[in-house]
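We were asked to recover a plausible sequence for a given structure. The inputs and outputs are reproduced exactly as logged, with field labels preserved.

PROBLEM: sequence recovery
POSITIONS: 439
GIVEN STRUCTURE:
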C-alpha cells in the first residue's frame, strides 16, 4: 500500500472486510498492498459509468426521446437490440486482441471516453435533428457507444480480478450500483417534479452523461494494475476459434451460459410490462415514475446482492430466478384480473422485476470472475457475452409474439424462462468456497 493511499484503509476495512480478516486469496501480495486504493478507484469509476448508463437508458430514456423527436417506431424498436447485442457480440473477436495488453485499464479508459463522446453525439442529434434523421443519428451513435462498451466489458472483469480479491469484488460492484442509483433517482425526481420542459431535461442529461463517462475513464487510470498474462493475443480470429473448445470441455461454463441466457427474460420484460399497463406511457411524468422505480430497486438491492454474491453467487442467481418468475407471473395475473390500471401497480411490479434484474447482473458478473482463472477469465467473458449477445439479438422475436399472440402470452413465456433458469443455476459450483473444500 503506498503511503498516499494509506488513509483509505479504515474506510476499506469498514466496507469490504469481514470477520475473517483481510488476507488476499487470489491476487499477489504486491496487488494486495494496493487493494484499498484500487477498491475505491473501481467504486468511483464504476459509479460514474453506471450513472451515465442510467441517463442514457435505451429502454426508457432513449425510447421516450426518439418518440418525442418523431422517429419511426421501427427505429425505436432497434434501440435495445443495438445497445445490448452490440455491446456483447463483438467480444468474441476483441477479447483475444485485448489480451495482448499487459495492463488493460487503458483499454477500459479508452472505451469509457468513446462512450462519453457517443452520448454527446446523441444529445447533439436531439438538438439539431428530428424525425427519421434524428432516429438514424441516435442509432448510429448508440452503435458506437455499444462497441466501446464491449471493450470495457471484456477488460473490466479481468482488471477487477487482478486488483481486488475475490472476497471483495461483489462489494465493489454492489456499492457502485447503489451509489449510481442515487444519481438515477435524482434524475427521476427532476423529470417528475421539475417545471422545466422534460425534453430539455433529457437532452441536458445526455450531455451530462457524456462528461461523466469521460470522467470515469480518467478515474480508472489511477488503478495500480500489475502487468498480466498476454497469452492468446497473437491472432484474434484463431484465438476466438480456439476458445470455442471451452464449450465442450467446461460443463460449468455451459451451465452458466444457460442460466444467464434464460435470465435475459428480466431484460426483455420491462417494455412489455409498460405496454401492458397501457395509458400514456410516453408522458413525461410517467417516464420519471418508471425511472424512479428502476433506480430505487438498484439503490435498495445492489449492495445487498453484491455482498451475497461474495458469499454465493450461485444462490444469488437461483434467488433472482425465483423473484423474476414471481414478478412476471404477478404481472400477468394483474392483467387478467384487470388491476393494471391502478396508479402504483405497474411501478411496484417493475420495482420487483428490477430487483431480480440487479441480482442477475451482480450474480453472473461475480460468478464469472470467480469461476475463471487469470488465464481463462478473458476467454470465458468473451464466450459468455457473445452467446448472450446472440440471444439478445434474437430477442426481437418477442416483439413478433407480442404482436400476434398478445402481451400476456409474451410475459408468460418470459416468466417460464425465469423458472427454467433455476435448474442450470443449481448445477453451478459454489465458486466462492476454497478449492480445498471440495476434498
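RECOVERED SEQUENCE:
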Amino acid at each position: 500500500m503506498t503511503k498516499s493511499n494509506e488513509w483509505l484503509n479504515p474506510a476499506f476495512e469498514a466496507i469490504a472486510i469481514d470477520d475473517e480478516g483481510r488476507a488476499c486469496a487470489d491476487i499477489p501480495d504486491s496487488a494486495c498492498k494496493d487493494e484499498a486504493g484500487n477498491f475505491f478507484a473501481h467504486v468511483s469509476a464504476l459509479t460514474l459509468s453506471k450513472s451515465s448508463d442510467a441517463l442514457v437508458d435505451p429502454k426508457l430514456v432513449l425510447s421516450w426521446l426518439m418518440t418525442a423527436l418523431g422517429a419511426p417506431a421501427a427505429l425505436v424498436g432497434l434501440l435495445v437490440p443495438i445497445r445490448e447485442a452490440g455491446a456483447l457480440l463483438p467480444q468474441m473477436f476483441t477479447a483475444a486482441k485485448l489480451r495482448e495488453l499487459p495492463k488493460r485499464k487503458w483499454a477500459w479508459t479508452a472505451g469509457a471516453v468513446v462512450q462519453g463522446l457517443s452520448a454527446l453525439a446523441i444529445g447533439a442529434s436531439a438538438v439539431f435533428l428530428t424525425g427519421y434523421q434524428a432516429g438514424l443519428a441516435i442509432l448510429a451513435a448508440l452503435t458506437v457507444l455499444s462497441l466501446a462498451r464491449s471493450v470495457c466489458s471484456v477488460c473490466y472483469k479481468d482488471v477487477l480480478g487482478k486488483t481486488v480479491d475475490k472476497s471483495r469484488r461483489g462489494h465493489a460492484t454492489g456499492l457502485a450500483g447503489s451509489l449510481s442509483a442515487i444519481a438515477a433517482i435524482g434524475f427521476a425526481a427532476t423529470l417528475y417534479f421539475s417545471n422545466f420542459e422534460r425534453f430539455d431535461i433529457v437532452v441536458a442529461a445526455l450531455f451530462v452523461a457524456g462528461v461523466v463517462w469521460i470522467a470515469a475513464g480518467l478515474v480508472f487510470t489511477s488503478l495500480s494494475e500489475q502487468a498480466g498474462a498476454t497469452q492468446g493475443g497473437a491472432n484474434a480470429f484463431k484465438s476466438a476459434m480456439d476458445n470455442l473448445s471451452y464449450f465442450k470441455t467446461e460443463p460449468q461454463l455451459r451451465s452458466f451460459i444457460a442460466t444467464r441466457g434464460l435470465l435475459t427474460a428480466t431484460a426483455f420484460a420491462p417494455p412489455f410490462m409498460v405496454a401492458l399497463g397501457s395509458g400514456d406511457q410516453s408522458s413525461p411524468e410517467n417516464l420519471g415514475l418508471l425511472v424512479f422505480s428502476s433506480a430505487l430497486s438498484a439503490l435498495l438491492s445492489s449492495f445487498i446482492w453484491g455482498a451475497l454474491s461474495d458469499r454465493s453467487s450461485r444462490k444469488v442467481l437461483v434467488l433472482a430466478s425465483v423473484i423474476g418468475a414471481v414478478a412476471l407471473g404477478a404481472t400477468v395475473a394483474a392483467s387478467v384480473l384487470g388491476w393494471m390500471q391502478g396508479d402504483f401497480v405497474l411501478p411496484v411490479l417493475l420495482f420487483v422485476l428490477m430487483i431480480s434484474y440487479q441480482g442477475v447482473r451482480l450474480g453472473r458478473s461475480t460468478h464469472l470472475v470467480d469461476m475463471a482463472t487469470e488465464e481463462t477469465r478473458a476467454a470465458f467473458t468473451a464466450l459468455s457475452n457473445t452467446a448472450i449477445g446472440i440471444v439478445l439479438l434474437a430477442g426481437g422475436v418477442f416483439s413478433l409474439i407480442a404482436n400476434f399472440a398478445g402481451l400476456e402470452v409474451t410475459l408468460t413465456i418470459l416468466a417460464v424462462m425465469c423458472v427454467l433458469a433455476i435448474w442450470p443455476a443449481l448445477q453451478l459450483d459454489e465458486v466462492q468456497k476454497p478449492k480445498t473444500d471440495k476434498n
